[in-house]
Amino acid sequence: MSNKTSRRSFLKGAFDRAAAMRPVGALPAMEFEDVCTGCGDCARACPEGIIFRDSEGFPVVKLRRGECTFCNACTDACDTGALVAGNAWPWRARAKASCLSRNGVQCRACQDHCESQAIRFRLQPGGSSQPLFDADLCTGCGACAAPCPVNAIEFTEISQQLETSKC
Ligand code: SF4
Ligand code: SF4
Ligand code: SF4
């Protein structure tokens, strides 16, 4: 992929789409799209079957389809250098406004599936409960995402969460 195409994609992305969740070990977004050939080796290597192709042919992880076990099979399968062992996984979970519990409906499905015990609930006036995700305990594995009955779990990059918390 040419630098021109990648840069255009980046600038477009900066304005109208959120950062894509690339497989474990991915280079930063612009570099990744320059180096990744879209060969699909990472997707074929993933035992959980959670790596798909996005509209531009790049691999994207869909935690709604299953949990990442951090087995590193995707990283190991990448011969281009787009996925590099040791690069930290930057994603952390949080609940969107559509969360049942936030809207007064009893639900603890995400908490029940979190082995890291990263989720607790804070009671709110009126009977709703706010799920709180501890970014230090959360590994970004996604085990909470598929069990959520209303697809209310989203993942953001740690740097983005820090920016949001400053606002
Ligand atoms: S680390 Fe393993 S489970 Fe996670 S996306 Fe890569 S191959 Fe799949
Ligand atoms: S599983 Fe989904 S709807 Fe239920 S409490 Fe968690 S985020 Fe909310
Ligand atoms: S992503 Fe994993 S560690 Fe984080 S809250 Fe969900 S289940 Fe727990």
UniProtKB/TrEMBL annotation:
[4Fe-4S] cluster 2 binds at C68, C71, C74, C78. The keyword Repeat applies. NCBIfam families: napF. [4Fe-4S] cluster 1 binds at C36, C39, C42, C46. Belongs to the NapF family. It comes from the Bacteria. Its main location: cytoplasm. The keyword Coiled coil does not apply. GO terms for molecular function: 4 iron, 4 sulfur cluster binding; metal ion binding. GO terms for cellular component: cytoplasm. [4Fe-4S] cluster 3 binds at C138, C141, C144, C148. It is found in: Cytoplasm. Residues 26-56, 59-88, 129-158 form the 4Fe-4S ferredoxin-type domain. Interacts with the cytoplasmic NapA precursor. Keywords: 4Fe-4S, Cytoplasm, Electron transport, Iron, Iron-sulfur, Metal-binding, Repeat, Transport. This is Ferredoxin-type protein NapF. Could be involved in the maturation of NapA, the catalytic subunit of the periplasmic nitrate reductase, before its export into the periplasm.
